[in-house]
Amino acid sequence: MHWLRWHRVLWPWMRRPWRMRTRDLSAVYLTSRTRWDGPGSQILATMSNICFADFTGVQYVHTPFQRMSHAPAGMTDEECGRRWERHLQLGEGYPSAESIQPAKRMVAHGAAGIRYRSGTLNVVDNCHAFTDRYPSVWGPALDGIKRNRWAPPAPRDGRPIVVAAHARRGDVPASETLRYTSDAYLASTLGGVAQVLSDYGLHATLHVYSEGREEDFAGLRELEVTLHLDGDQIGDWEALRAADVLIVSRSAYSYSAALLSDGIILCPRFWHEPLPGWVRVGRDGAYSAENLKGKLLG
Q1: What strands lie across the sheet with 59-60, from one edge to the other?
Q2: 6-35 confidence digits (pLDDT tens)
Q3: Gyration radius of the chain over CA positions
Q4: What is the pLDDT of residue 173?
Q5: Residue 113's pLDDT is what?
Q6: How far apart are alpha carbons 80 and 109 in whole angstroms?
Q7: CA dihedral in degrees (62, 63, 64, 70; nearest 10)?
Q8: Cβ neighbours for 12, distance < 8 A, ≥ 6 positions apart
Q9: What is the CB-side half-sphere exposure of residue 203 using CA atoms within 13 A?
Q10: Cα(220)–Cα(209) distance, integer angstroms
C-alpha cells in the first residue's frame, strides 16, 4: 500500500481503538468468524480478536473452532476442530456467542471495520492489522491466556536446554522461498544457538518439527538434531510452545505457539511482526548473537 494511502485512509481507522478505550463498550460484542483453514491460522486469528477486545474494552464472546484443514489421517476436519477447541479452550472465562442476544449482527472486515454501537455483535475474521501494527499490545491478553491454562515453567535444574525449530514443509514446495524453511536456515539458527550455549558450558538438545522424510533434511547431518516428522498436530505444537528456545518459521503454526511460550523466541519478520523482546532473524538465518546471549544469561 502506498504510504500516502496508508496515512490518509487506513491510519485514522487504526487509531480508533486508542480513542475508544475511554468509552463504556461493555455492550459492544466481538466474536471470531467461522473459518476452515489450518490450526495455526485459526488459533492466531482468535487470539488476535481476544487481544483487540481486551485492549479496547469491547466484550469478547467466543465462537468455538468448527473445522480445521490438514486434519490427521483418519480424522475429519470437524473432529480436528473440536479436538483443538478442547485442548486450548480459548473461550474459557468468556461468554459464548450463542448466549447473547445482540440488537444487530455485523460482519466486520478486521479491526478497522468494527462498529462501536451498543448491542452490536461484530463478527471478525481477525485483528492482525492491529496486532501487527502494535505488537506490544499482545502482552496482557497473552498473559491471561497462558496463566489460565499452563503453570509457569519449572526450574531447569541442570537438565539440557531444549531448542526446538519448526520447518514449514509439507504443502509448501521449495520454490516458495517466502514460506519454505530451508536446511540452510535451520542449520544457521540451530547451529548458532548451540554454539552460544556451548560457549557458556550449557548443553542443549536440538529438535526439528516438520513433515517429510529424513533424507529431506540432509543439510542438518552435521548437527546432532532429533527430527520429529509427521507427528501429532497438538503434540508437536505443545513441544514447540514448551521449548526453552523456539525458532519460528514463517508459519502461523509456530508463531501461535511462540505467542503462548515462556521461552526465548527467535523469529523472522514476515507477514506477522515479532514481538518486543524476541530475537529477530534475517531471511538467511542470521541474528544477533549478543542479543541471544543477553537473553540466555539474563
Answers
A1: 59-60, 29-32, 120-124, 104-108
A2: 444 444 455 556 555 556 677 899 999 999
A3: 20
A4: 58
A5: 86
A6: 26
A7: -130
A8: none
A9: 6
A10: 13
pTM of the model: 0.86
For residues 182 and 292, what is the distance between their CA atoms, to the nearest angstrom?
A: 22
Straight-line distance from the first to the last Cα atom of the chain, in angstroms, rounded to the nearest whole number? 39
Name 207's bridge partners.
Answer: 164, 226
Question: Would you say how long the chain is, in residues?
Answer: 298
Q: Where are the beta strands (DSSP E) in 29-92?
A: 29-32, 59-60
Cell of 260: 503462548
CB 264 within 8 A of CB 243: no
- Backbone torsions φ then ψ of 40, nearest 5 degrees: -60, -45
Query: At residue 229, what are phi and psi to the nearest 5 degrees?
Result: -110, 135
Q: What is the DSSP code (8-state) at residue 96?
A: B
10 Å Cβ neighbour count for 57?
16
Residue 79, C-alpha cell as written in the block: 473432529
What was the pLDDT predicted at 148? 74
- How far is it, in rounded angstroms, from Cα 148 to Cα 79? 24
pLDDT given at position 7: 41
Give the three cell numbers for residue 214: 529424513
Sign of CA dihedral 180, 176, 171, 256: positive
| Whole-number Å distance between alpha carbons of 68 and 227 | 25
> What residues of the chain score a pLDDT lower than 50?
1-12
Do residues 150 and 142 touch, judged by C-beta distance below 8 A? no
Hey, which residues does 104 pair with through a beta bridge? 120
Residues 6+ apart with CB under 8 A from 82: 64, 65
DSSP label of 62: B
